[in-house]
Amino acid sequence: MKCLIVCFVVLVGALAFDWDSDELKCVEELGTDKATIERIGDRKPMPIDNQKFNEFTECSWKKQGLIKKDGTINWDEIHEVILGGVEEKQGRNKNKQAAENAARRLVNPCRNITGTTRGQTAVKIHNCLDNQLRNYRP
């Protein structure tokens, strides 16, 4: 299954860290320790001042298409990830338009968040989305 679903699960904190091939490539490319990434990634909110974790997050978001080649955040892709999670939470009561509206309401408050690096920006956005999703009720 694509990492996007795993990312949503991580965002809502429902499951332990689940490594996909792109994330494993980032660990290898950056020479980062998996246990350290797991330990930091499990913290809520995730710390924004850990350079290695920020680099890992940037790398994995790029590989997942959440950061575009030009370095900007891919808000369309983030919307799709959140939309999938909203639809999953709706269960049998699926309503596509209501899910679209809910995803938009969840993502919009996070759109103007920036950090000092792309990685820090990604971590800050992740924390914002996590907070939005924790408070979401279908």
From TrEMBL:
CDD domains: PBP_GOBP
Signal peptide range in chain numbering: 1-16
SUPFAM superfamilies documented for this protein: Insect pheromone/odorant-binding proteins (SSF47565)
Record keywords: Signal
Tagged with keyword Signal: yes
Source organism, top-level taxon: Eukaryota
One Pfam family it belongs to: PBP_GOBP
Gene3D superfamilies: Pheromone/general odorant binding protein domain
Entry protein name: Uncharacterized protein
Organism this protein belongs to: Ignelater luminosus (Cucubano)
